[in-house]
Amino acid sequence: MSTDDTERQRRIADLEATLRLPVPDTIRRQMEDELRTLISFGSGNQFADVTMGDVVGGNVIKDTQGSVELSADARLNGVAVGVNLGRIVYGRDPEEEERRRLAWYLASLANTLSRLPLRGLEERLDHGEGLALPQVYVMLATESELRVAQGEAIRPYFQGSDPTQPLDPAYDPTLALPHQAIIRVTAEGGTLTPIGRRSEPIPVLFRAQLCTEAVQQYPRLLLLGAPGGGKSTFIRHLAWSLARRGLDQRDSATALFGWDDAHRLLPIILPLRTLAGRIAVEGAHETTVFAALRNEMQSCCMHQVDDMLRAALDRGTALLLCDGLDEVPITSSTGQSAARITTLVTLRAFATMHPSARIVVTCRSRAFADDLRTQIGWPVETLAPFTLGQVRHFVPAWYGELVAKKQITPEQAERLGTSLVESIIASTKLTAMAETPLLLTLMALVLFNKGELPRDRPQLYERILDLLLGQWDQVREGSSLAEAIGLPDWGSERFRPLLDQLSYQAHVAGSSEDGRGRLGRGVLYTALIDFFTVAQVPEPWAAAARWLDYVEQRSGLLAPDGQDSYVFAHLTLQEHCAGRHIALNSENPVDLVMELRTDDRWREPIFLGAGLMHPAVLNSLLTDLIEREGKNPIRWYRDVILAAEIGQDRDWNYLRTRPMVKVERLQRDLKKGLVAVLADTTQPLPTAERVRAGFLLGELDDPRYPVTPEQWRAELARVGQPGSYFCEVKAGNYIIGSGDDDPDADDNEKPQHTIILDQPLLIARYPVTNDQWRAWFDRGGEKSYFDNEDDFNHRNQPVVGITWDMANAFCVWLSEQLGLTVRLPTEQEWEAAARGGDSRRYPWSGDWHDDHAASEEDCETRGGRWSVPVGCYPSGKAPCGVLDMAGNVWEWTASIWQSYPGAEKVFTDDGRRVLRGGCFNDDRTNVRCGARVRLHPVNDGGGDRGGVRVCVSPQLAH
Known about the structure:
Layout (H helix, E strand, L loop, with lengths): L2 H17 L5 H18 L32 E2 L2 E2 L2 H8 L5 H18 L9 H4 L6 H4 L4 E10 L31 E8 L11 E10 H7 L2 E6 L5 H16 L19 E6 H11 L3 H16 L4 H10 L2 E6 L16 H14 L4 E7 L5 H7 L3 E3 L5 H17 L5 H17 L1 H7 L2 H14 L6 H17 L7 H4 L11 H14 L9 E2 H14 L5 H15 L3 E3 L4 E4 L2 H15 L3 H8 L6 H8 L4 H12 L6 H18 L1 H4 L7 H17 L7 H13 L9 H9 L8 E4 L2 E5 L16 E5 L3 E4 L5 H8 L26 H15 L3 E2 L3 H9 L54 E9 L9 E9 L15 E4 L10 E2 L3 E2 L6
Parallel strand pairs: 6-9, 6-10, 7-8, 8-9, 19-22
Antiparallel strand pairs: 1-2, 3-5, 4-5, 11-13, 12-13, 14-17, 15-16, 17-23, 18-23, 19-20, 20-21
Helix pairs in contact: 1-2, 4-8, 4-10, 9-12, 10-12, 12-13, 14-15, 15-16, 17-18, 20-23, 21-22, 23-24, 23-25, 24-26, 26-27, 26-29, 27-29, 27-30, 29-30
């Protein structure tokens, strides 16, 4: 049996085993399709009808490269292709000429997209057929979750069908792909709802939502991601697969897990940089968008496509894949490019004119500012980082494709693949880098060429640059670059300052479709002459001409872009070399960074440049960013955040080994700045930036709350001082419960009544954090149920998954340490602290205000569906000064669940305790001051939502 047959049989066995388990219907259909395809190939029936719902005659072509060859009359192996998609596009049987135009477009698009673009990264692999994108593509997921199974149905997902054991390897996220990997196990059900509903926790499993599922779910979608996170690759692969399917070619390579197989669409890729250029010339009109789409289609088939495009738009069968919003300049350039927001608004207007058209827009997460979000109003999903499971699938596929292209032997592929995966697992920095598909690809290339990997992103790019420049030193067609220009004693490193300068100039321009800057031939020629003149090269104009000729004909670093201009082969390389210019070649790197820092396009070059700066220069940069004098509050806040991000990116522990970087002083001042960001009740920064500041502060040892017993004692001594941890709730009368005028109130919140606090109460400003909880755990306490969940275990996030008994045990320990009574507040005390002396619905006022609480309403604006660091919503504080009383995390109280005095329906439940405040995924109804829920005190931690807030007061009588 051949290697291919063995692999096919193994995959068949895996699929058959998985299909015996409870699998979501959409995934089951895709797996059944793949299984039938594999069996079909094994039986030798190359053209078998392999999928449910396929029309008779649908061809299944085994083609590892992914390209298509049509005959002159648009037939494949004598069969007329495109008829089925034509019926969908036109709503009738297409005429022969319509069918041919459609088939030619799809075939050209598929052929264009079938190659993995590697020019400028690895010249050897870009020659000839190149590497096949379908063979190395790994499915991508978003940060959203989908419910997979609950209750007894979860058993098959665990080893031995025992939920107390680890996940079965087929569902382990460190081994499996996202369509199977279980990323969260929690307890849900009716546990956090008012009386009358089931309260027993139900175990629930979740997996990540696939990008394909998001595209299919939302007719309009914004897909965000980090630089190199796979946005464009996903778009290319989706368009390639849909194009092949439109030609009735169905195989395992075109399988789209999570995609309804009957959902056939006409894919059209539109670089938004191109659209912005057209808008600058032709105006912000619907016709401009239509013309841009038409030109993109005609570039593939060179035929009239207007009727096809109009029909697809009108019938909702067009899928517009609009790539790279972040590559559109923020501000307009007359005759060159429209502004980013203008481009997005024009696209939105086009979408309004064509309500049936399906549209996906990709953008870097950082570039998708609040003004863009407000203008577009479409659903937003964010690409999830690569998991180890995805890494483990990508690496053998990558090196396997190198074997197929006869670049390495199978033995070498095995060795390199094992080495790369083991290196990634062994290094936390490489693990973090491998979460970005582009960086993982670069790691695979460096290992392929150099045999070892650096542990740092700028150094990794330096290795990539070494590879590319090393190609210039190789003798090709009789000469290396140095020999070709008449300087045989020069090495490629002599050209680095020139490349850095050109990259910087290109990034300033940023005029190509994807943000790469075009360098005019004349400008480039002049720069070369100047460079060779300074180097005292004889006849510098001749050397410049020969350099240009060599680069144009034989180098992949700079690529011709039309007849009279050049671009860098990859935006990443342009950004890295621009960062090199800032750090190593500019007259004053610090001043240059301060000049560029306001433009989001320079964020990546600044970070990469910081990785190459001399330690003294880096220290000066961080100091200038942290300095407050002469800056308005918003500018200072953003500078502080940027400084903290640069320090984190550079690794503070590493910087401590560099004596010229004054880490302790920098971190001290950074903490003051970040605390100021989070304390500003005017909230001038958008939610996402404040939340980012909160996470950064947590990594620097957040000083806003006590952790050690000594710090707790110090905070008790500071009561009444500005910013003290404990807030005072004065003795007196307080209104409790919700009135009949509150339409959201449940019966269990009524009637509204007055209670008396006989003595003042000291209540914590924030919920208990993971930092504070772990201090108890380190001294023999219990671990929270979500201690290993990355989304919930950052140091200054509120601890979650805490039972009432665990919360009380924490209070008992803390009381022993402090020599006074620390306990949970009663629900009356909690509500008195939240409302103050009136009947307000929310801690801040009687009316709902956006951006005042970490709730379901703002999950997108804060950049995630998880809890946030404590205190990120200062404008949502209660009258006594406490924060996070609404949203973020439900908080246990000392009170038994029972009806209020005078209630029409009297109830009590000695087995349940009350929680207050709502959490990060509750809406405005459940984050009201009067909202109540109940949980069992011993075995229920409220899933990922149950938290703790403590108070200091006389001991309660129980």
